[in-house]
Design a protein that fits this description.
Structural class of chain A: mainly alpha
Number of helices of chain A: 5
Oligomer: heterodimer
Shape of chain B: elongated
Strand content of chain A: under 5%
Mean pLDDT of chain B: 86
Order of helices and strands of chain A: HHHHH
Largest interface: A-B, 52 and 51 residues
Strand order of the largest sheet of chain B: 1-2
Number of strands of chain A: 0
CATH architecture of chain B: Up-down Bundle
Order of helices and strands of chain B: HHHHEEHH
Shape of chain A: flat
Low-confidence stretches of chain A: 1-15
Mean pLDDT of chain A: 83
Largest sheet of chain B: 2 strands, antiparallel
Radius of gyration of chain A: 18 Å
Strand content of chain B: under 5%
Radius of gyration of chain B: 21 Å
């Protein structure tokens, strides 16, 4: 157990970033948000499926950026990753399952 | 704090409450809370998506208000600004955390104050959006009014419940931030300060993360 703790502390120290790094992550997240809004404004010209695909990819990238770098989950103790990622997996599965069940009404892509 | 507990402080001067898993118990508890909140907000978002699609399909099938998409209520101009505000607050929060770990308390106070101001701006912006939507006819009721006609739908209920709960979380986050700000100002030498800041930071980033989901799934799609 002590070895685990030492490993986690090393991992955390390894992932410690300077303020310049945080500014860079913040700038990238701001750019992603701007692209999301821009794509929303031209969604009629690019088609619904492509619009959804781009938007999902950008949102997942943005969410992952917040979790990994701002919440420092990347490189943090495995137990923190576990207690977050397991419920997140359940949540995404539940969401997709219910949207499929109710897809008679159009679902998310309707 | 006793002399014994002082002896357990790490090199950074923190007083970690390390449990049998080898991690700080408070941080583990907060991550578990965030995990449960993830399920909570996903349930709210899923419910809203289902009732949005149902409302839209029923309106189209009935021929009544054939061109009405209930999302016409939700403009993205203000929401984009709110998304930018919350994103900026996440950046100021992580900068406050970095300053607290470096024991640069002046910088810490500046960035935490910036986070508080940005968070409060978000709450005010959301209150403005809610009042605007109410005036337009979208209400926390199983119906909404469009061009003088009443449409039966749970769209308003699920929308206000979901975004209202998020707004409540932001408000509680602002209160927590203010509490940490004054606690650190009153007890600048407390070894627990960096962990206090880290905990409120985790919660704050989670609130931002939820908005990333709501902004995309509810407003953009």
């Amino acid at each position: 157990m002590a070895e685990h703790a030492t490993h986690d502390q090393h991992a955390e120290a390894h992932e410690a970033h300077g303020t310049r790094f945080y500014w860079m992550v913040g700038a990238i997240l701001a750019i992603i948000t701007t692209i999301e809004v821009a794509i929303f404004l031209v969604k009629d010209t690019i088609g619904h499926e492509l619009f959804l695909a781009i938007l999902f990819i950008l949102s997942i990238a943005k969410g992952a950026g917040v979790v990994m770098f701002f919440m420092h989950l990347r490189g943090d103790a495995r137990i923190f990753q576990l207690v977050f990622i397991v419920p997140l997996t359940f949540a995404v599965t539940m969401c997709l399952g219910f949207l499929t069940i109710f897809s008679n009404y159009g679902g998310i892509a309707g | 704090m006793s002399a014994t507990s002082h002896a357990h402080h790490d090199e950074a001067g923190q007083a970690p409450l390390v449990g049998s898993l080898g991690v700080d118990s408070r941080k583990l508890g907060l991550w578990a809370f965030i995990g449960s909140e993830t399920l909570f907000f996903t349930a709210l978002i899923t419910t809203h998506l289902i009732f949005y699609a149902r409302t839209k399909a029923e309106l189209t099938a009935s021929g009544m208000l054939a061109h009405l998409d209930p999302k016409h209520f939700l403009g993205i101009n203000l929401t984009s600004v709110l998304a930018a505000i919350l994103l900026a607050s996440s950046l100021t929060m992580v900068l406050a955390l970095a300053a607290s770990k470096a024991k640069e308390w002046q910088k810490f106070r500046f960035w935490l104050l910036a986070t508080i101001i940005l968070g409060s701006s978000f709450v005010l912006g959301q209150a403005y959006e809610f009042s605007h939507l109410y005036a337009e006819g979208l209400k926390l009721a199983p119906q909404f009014v469009y061009e003088g006609e009443t449409v039966k739908s749970l769209f308003g209920v699920t929308f206000f419940t979901m975004t209202g709960f998020h707004g409540l979380h932001v408000t509680l986050g602002v209160i927590w931030l203010i509490a940490v700000y004054f606690k650190v100002r009153k007890f600048p030498a407390s070894p627990e300060n960096p962990m206090d800041v880290e905990l409120v930071g985790l919660y704050w980033h989670f609130v931002d993360l939820v908005w990333v989901g709501i902004f995309t799934l509810i407003y953009l799609i």
